[in-house]
Specification:
Number of strands: 4
Order of helices and strands: HHHHEHHEEHEHHH
Number of domains: 2
Largest sheet: 4 strands, mixed
CATH topology of the largest domain: GMP Synthetase, Chain A, domain 3
Oligomer: single chain
Strand order of the largest sheet: 1-4-3-2
Radius of gyration: 15 Å
Helix content: 55-70%
CATH class of the largest domain: Alpha Beta
């Protein structure tokens, strides 16, 4: 089952609109991708239930370097490769990893009250708002490739199997979903 399905639907809708607005996608391509997205959401696999997977890998109609360049130029945020980054922050602040998959977003550190979050979904304002609400204080955003985020999520899950994470109490995203 997809966690927080309304967030996933809304985030992908906003991302699609932003991609069209930036000239990175045509309306007819978005319609085709949305059909596949609904199928993926119905399948219940959070890892595939996101527009970027479909556009980049299934339909191959979006170039990731163009997306990253557009985000960095228009939104004035930096880029990060999470390949060698220590993800111990996620152990101390457990989050729902399915939501990380569904929004290709991952919080990765907290320094002096600032939470650092990497995302390939920065153009989706619902995704940005959701993640900013999960942590107190200001957020520093970074754009990252889908591959870098996927590798970070997989590495975290390998080092911290979901059974162990479920035993930890007080996940910020899980607590807000129940409320």
């Amino acid at each position: 089952m997809i966690p927080n399905r309304p967030l996933v639907l809304r985030s992908n809708r906003f991302l699609g609109s932003a991609l069209i607005e930036k000239g990175l996608l045509k309306n007819e391509d978005l319609e085709a991708a949305n059909e596949r997205l609904l199928e993926a959401i119905q399948s219940g696999d959070a890892r595939t239930a996101n527009l970027l997977n479909i556009l980049l890998y299934d339909l191959r109609i979006l170039e990731e370097p163009d997306l990253i360049d557009a985000i960095m130029e228009d939104e004035d945020i930096g880029i990060i490769d999470l390949g060698n980054y220590d993800l111990s922050f996620l152990v101390e602040h457990p989050i729902d990893m399915d939501l990380c998959w569904a929004t290709y977003t991952i919080p990765f550190d907290q320094v002096e009250g600032f939470t650092m979050i990497a995302s390939a979904y920065y153009l989706s304002k619902p995704a940005v708002s959701f993640w900013e609400e999960q942590f107190p204080g200001p957020v520093l955003w970074y754009v990252s490739s889908v591959g870098s985020i996927a590798e970070a999520i997989e590495r975290h899950l390998a080092e911290n199997p979901p059974e162990e994470a479920a035993a930890q109490e007080g996940s910020p995203t899980q607590a807000k979903e129940k409320a």
